[in-house]
Amino acid sequence: MDYQNRAGSKFGGGGVASASATNADRRERLRKLALETIDLDKDPYIFKNHVGSFECRLCLTVHQNDGSYLAHTQGRKHQTNLARRAAREAQLGKDRDQNLSGLSQVQIKKNVVKIGRPGYKITKTRDPLTRQLGLLFQLQYPEISQDVEPKVRFMSAFEQKVEEPDKQFQYLLVAAEPYETCAFKLQAREIDRSEGKYWTWFDGDSKEFWVQVTFKTEREERYSGVPGLAPRR
């Protein structure tokens, strides 16, 4: 900045610069610095509008010339927005990578030719201590696919696609490829899922699948979840 040849100052004395002169000199220095590091042709945020002004698409600001825009790119506002944009893009890229990795782990459903229903045997059971009623299912899967174990789930009557479902019954579903899914019609009573009451086991040698289902007693169903009553062990 020329501190000597300024109006109102003595030659060689270097008068005090005004605020406007200081700002003009700062903008000029920032413009020169930006020209050394920024190529406007490769700047994705600069836009020249129909009146010849320059706009910053990142900060939504308008500048009269390229020098003003370059000075703006070196300011705090533009640099902060650049950091925010970079952090957001990094997070989006991380989420996208996680989604892709999750998709790669999804097993593609194959069209498996069903070979019919497995053989099964049902035995009624009763707990000698609690007198709870139950059922023991034994299903044979001699042609079950390798590394496949049968899956079990309970289906209520309201999950069926019928107009008038019978709420007095529920269904036990057992699925294992390449066999068809078996459905057993049970009473709509609450299942006792405590240890030793409900369990499944697959014998890989004999290809036999066991399911033990025990129903809660009427008293347990009636007072289940009542405050003040200790849970049964």
UniProtKB/TrEMBL annotation:
It is found in: Nucleus. One of its GO terms (biological process) is spliceosomal complex assembly. Pfam families: SF3A2, zf-met. Keywords: Metal-binding, mRNA processing, mRNA splicing, Nucleus, Spliceosome, Zinc, Zinc-finger. It comes from Aureobasidium subglaciale (strain EXF-2481) (Aureobasidium pullulans var. subglaciale). This is Matrin-type domain-containing protein. GO terms for molecular function: nucleic acid binding; zinc ion binding. The keyword Zinc-finger applies. It comes from the Eukaryota. Residues 1-23 are annotated as: Disordered. GO terms for cellular component: catalytic step 2 spliceosome; U2 snRNP; U2-type prespliceosome. Residues 54-84 form the Matrin-type domain. Belongs to the SF3A2 family. PROSITE patterns: ZF_MATRIN (PS50171).
